[in-house]
Amino acid sequence: MHKIVFLDKSAVAPKIHLPTPDFPHQWVEYDFTDSHELVERARDATVVVTCGAPVRAAELAQLPQLKMVCVAMTGTDHVDVDYCRAHDILVCNVPAYSPATVAEHALGLLLALRRQILSYHNLLKSDQWYGEDWFTKVFLDHEVNDIHSSRIGIVGTGMIGRAMGKMAAGIGMDVVYYNRGKKISDLPLVSFDELLETCDAISLHCPLNDSTRDLFTLTEFKRMKQGAVIINAARGGIINEPDLAEALRTGVLTGAAIDVVERDPITPEEPLLQLMDLPNFIMTPHVAWSSLQAMQGLMDRAIENLNQWNKGAPTNLV
To answer: Where in this chain does the record put each D-isomer specific 2-hydroxyacid dehydrogenase catalytic domain (predicted)?
Structure first.
């Protein structure tokens, strides 16, 4: 009988129904598992399930009975996939379980940034908006821009990037894509130079790897179109964070809205939290993926990955 250990059940909302694997098994779950707890908790497990709990080589080396790491997410950068491959441990994930939910969040960030929604919300909360100069405070102090008829450049041509493009086109944006890999014939592709120089907004929907790490630094921010903003609901590390802070503080970059940081999950020590008082910066704590509908689909497919693995026909291998 397989022993399955769910390392971080607290990542799943209480309203989500967790399906039961269709083969004999022992199920053990923990709210969260840190690296130093992994070996003890998974010592006799053949399968671990992780949303974001780290599964690294140092701990994997002490778990010789482990056969499968089931990642209940799309991203696998918290798992040492290379070690697993070298030691016959299968790793599966849930690709593109709900591209629309991440795209919706990214579009919401863009709208909030361009329409100054948070600035106006905070203005009314402050009770400082009413008085003789109310017209200036309400209508002139916060620059509002339409996104209709503006150009958005989407970095990444996968399902999330395409979903973002479809939504943006639906509200009248001119949509172009940038892809560092092979040419995509069914999408309007532009060069990186054209992306920087012509887009009013750039939205990141690509993986973090050697070719995309620090893709946006102060150099790129300086080359972006005047007044342009950047959205990142992909992975921290694609944007160089110290450079982002400098660009926002000095006015090199008009605005940024992000859902991810390089040191994930976010902690109270996160340096970018120091930017939260800036009117041109919005940050959310890696929640673009987490609608109830998306989370249910995610867990359904993660458990189905386990069922298929047990049948000898593993799916969604990384």
So the answer is: 30-316
